Amino acid sequence: MTTTTAPTTERSYGISTMQGVWLVAKREVLTEARQKSFLWSLGLTVAFVVGIVLLTNFMGNGGFGGGPQNVAVTNAASALLPSELPADRFTVQNVEGAASGAELVTNEEADALLVTREEAASLTLFDSTAQPAQLGSSSELVIVTANGTNDSLTTAVSVKPDTFQLGNEPDDSGIRYGLGFLFGIIFFMGALGYCMRIAQSVVEEKSSRVVEILLATVSPKVIMAGKIIGNSALAFGQMAIIGLAGSLAMVAVGQSEALLMILPAILAFIGYFVLGFLMLAALYAGVAALVSRQEEVATVTTPLMMLIMIPYFAIIFFNDNDAVLRAMSYIPFSSPIAMPIRLIIGDAMWWEALLALVILVLTTLVCIWIGGRIYENSILRTGGRVKLSEAMKRQ
Known about the structure:
It contains 15 helices and 5 strands. It is α/β, with parallel strands linked by helices.
């Protein structure tokens, strides 16, 4: 007598995978967006970013009694000025020629030198990337500094001048620190805030047994995917609003050129940030399923929190260290911050950015798999904390 075994089939759910993901993601977005705390947080963050832009511009123009700048101006350049420089912001020191004015700037006796394009040709000048200056014919006036640019003087001169420096070292310290702080705070606030929300939502549904109702309709992987996609949409939308507000503020205060200069780094950061967020979100969703009480969330997520905080502080403290910045640009948890900075200062080749991106993509895929395995094996186990080794076993 021959016996036959019925073929094993996967469980059939009432709705398709895509419908399930959409419904869970929609629920996550609507639940969070309707809360006043979300709107207040977004509004305060936008106000903070706009305030930083306005304050930076104000300080650059000598705000808070910083004292007027001493500007050396040649007689020929003075004749080309449509109007006098504001006396409350600049002290004009007339010099006979470009050489004597450049000596004052080099000796730090003057903050900047204003010369004609013809006079500037007699000086050895460099642009902000330490390349020999190309004077061209875009302006008859040229601003010369010891190093870097002088935005306040550039804004004050009615006829838009070109700006060059006497030193042959690239002035990227401000860019390094500024972008490091900007990208770091965005990554820190966006990733930490929304990843923690994912973790708390997982535990809340597990402890209230809501997840058991959801599992009657969709699979655990669908619930996890919906949570990650929904919170990702919230995080990316919030970052887009903040970025737009900051960009408009920069345009409003006349920093359009600075915005265009850092735009490539911003676009690169967006790509790396999306992958970095998905990587961390999957891990947060997975480890949160190990516990059943909100009080235990901090315990299981602390190691992941360190993966967010360490890159943030490392970028702030080591932004001027080329070796550290280069190493951090290949580490998946810090590359979303480090690599865009290296790209904008010209310290990274195209293949380095591609290599870092490949490493980040592969790491993200591995983390999604790990987070999914932990979530699926732990979400229905209530009571005590589930051991990580048990959650990783194939069921």
